[in-house]
Amino acid sequence: MDILITGGTGLLGRALCTALLADGHRISVLSRRPDRVAAVCGAAVRPLARLADWQAGMSFDAIINLAGAPIVDLPWTHARKQVLWSSRIGLTQALVEAIAAAPVKPRVLLSGSAIGFYGETGDTPCSETSVSPASLAEDFSQRLCAGWESAAGRAADLGLRVCVLRTGIVLSHSGGMLGRMRLPFRLGLGCRLGDGRQWMSWIHIADWVGAVRHLLQDEEAAGAFNLTAPQPVRNADFSDALAASLGSRIHLAMPALALRALLGQRAGLLLGSQRILPARLAAAGHAFRFAGLAEALQDLHGADQVRQA
Ligand SMILES: NC(=O)c1ccc[n+]([C@@H]2O[C@H](COP(=O)([O-])OP(=O)(O)OC[C@H]3O[C@@H](n4cnc5c(N)ncnc54)[C@H](OP(=O)(O)O)[C@@H]3O)[C@@H](O)[C@H]2O)c1
């Protein structure tokens, strides 16, 4: 297939490019820094600086839309929220406009979202179908995900098969949350967050890539899919498992009050409880390589040790 990826230079996009190239697909990546694309994503990957370049005669079979400014890194000021919004919703709207204008349209759009879509779910297990519209669109991250999904959904009116990727916390050896946590945990400075009872819905990056490859090929797949492992865990258990996998132990807890003072609204990303299950992926016959956290962490730390050797 000819595939266009937005956000292909990011943590998830890079892993996806590697896998899709190995599968024999031809990949283009839309990037604000097209000169870096070949070095970051693979020499065979074609850079695209602007969506307008697409209209100059190329066609794509599939689009995978992952671009978005990082959500955790900076305080959610009014200006930052605008960047978070326009880099996802604005770009997705422009993408759908480009699809509408393209003489040969792609067959499928896989578009980013996050389990932030569900907001706070407490202890209740939550699948794609267990949400009532009334409980949605309360906080900023929910509104962001809902707006992102709705912008992508417009591509279905153009005849595309559209899947939205409600991604959980992706565990990767190359960065993301695990990249931030590894050093303090290794040094014995890891801690539980708040009371540690909040659920964390994680996924190993290999399974995230596997799920996207599945959704790319499965002609029956459409709508929202939770990209999370089948066994979410509480924060206390996650922290203990991560510390144990690094030969360390948890001695500390970061009080919720301190996190809120430090991070403002973003503290909700760490203190919120989301017990999300990948019901539709399971129903579609997708098999996870890493259902349990201990095996996932063991695999990722193994990859680390191989790189350090
Ligand atoms: N990683 C996770 O655990 C996780 C969980 C849930 C959802 N997600 C979502 O999945 C998507 C990919 O995640 P990721 O971890 O790969 O993200 P990432 O590493 O931060 O990469 C995102 C990509 O988006 C592009 N981008 C960044 N700021 C932008 C801006 N202001 N305007 C336009 N494009 C911009 C960048 O591409 P260029 O610099 O090449 O333009 C960047 O490579 C993100 O939208 C993220 O919100 C990720």
Feature tags:
309 residues, alpha/beta, Rossmann fold, 7-stranded parallel β-sheet, two-stranded parallel ribbon, 12 helices, 41% helix, globular, binds NADP nicotinamide-adenine-dinucleotide phosphate
Provide structural commentary:
The chain is of the alpha/beta class and 309 residues long. It has twelve helices and 13 strands. Helix 2 links the parallel strand 2 and strand 3 (46-48). The longest helix is centred in the N-terminal third of the chain and has 24 residues, at 78-101. It is globular. The structure holds NADP nicotinamide-adenine-dinucleotide phosphate. NADP nicotinamide-adenine-dinucleotide phosphate (NAP) binds at residues 7, 9-13, 31-33, 66-71, 83, 87, 91, 112, 114, 167, 169-170, 176. NADP nicotinamide-adenine-dinucleotide phosphate is lined by residues 7, 9-13, 31-33, 66-71, 83, 87, 91, 112, 114, 167, 169-170, 176.
Note the beta-strand portion: 15-25%
Main sheet specs: 7 strands, parallel
Please state the CA-atom Rg, rounded to the nearest Å: 19 Å
CATH top level is Alpha Beta
Query: Given the C-alpha coordinates, what overall shape results?
Result: globular
Bound molecules: NADP nicotinamide-adenine-dinucleotide phosphate
The helix count comes to 12
Mean pLDDT equals 93
| Category by helix and strand content | alpha/beta
Oligomer: single chain
Helix content: 40-55%
- Give me the count of strands: 13
Q: Gap between N and C termini, in Å?
A: 36 Å
- The CATH superfamily bears the name NAD(P)-binding Rossmann-like Domain
How many domains comprise the coordinates? 1
CATH topology: Rossmann fold
Task: Please list the strands of the largest sheet in the order they lie side by side.
Answer: 3-2-1-4-5-6-11
